[in-house]
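[step 3/7] inverse_fold.run input=structure_tokens len=73
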């Protein structure tokens, strides 16, 4: 199952906090798609997720200077 979270209105450190809270709610093996802004969230969220043991499956730029991060728990 794939879940979605938009953190484009959040600022660090709340960007990672929101992602971590959502990951805690989903089951192992499920995926979380995260829409995030360029800059600090793009630099910190994927790295922090990997440090916490989650798998970064992909990271793609969108048309509007945002990025789509796909994680697996």
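[step 3/7] decode complete -> sequence:
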């Amino acid at each position: 199952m794939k879940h979605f979270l938009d953190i484009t209105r959040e600022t660090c450190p709340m960007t990672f906090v929101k992602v971590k809270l959502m990951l805690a709610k989903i089951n192992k093996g499920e995926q979380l798609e995260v829409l995030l802004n360029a800059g600090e969230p793009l630099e910190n969220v994927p790295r922090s997720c990997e440090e916490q043991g989650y798998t970064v499956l992909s990271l793609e730029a969108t048309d509007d200077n945002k990025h789509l991060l796909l994680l697996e728990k």
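[step 4/7] annotate
The chain has two helices and four strands.
Helices lie at 14-25, 40-51.
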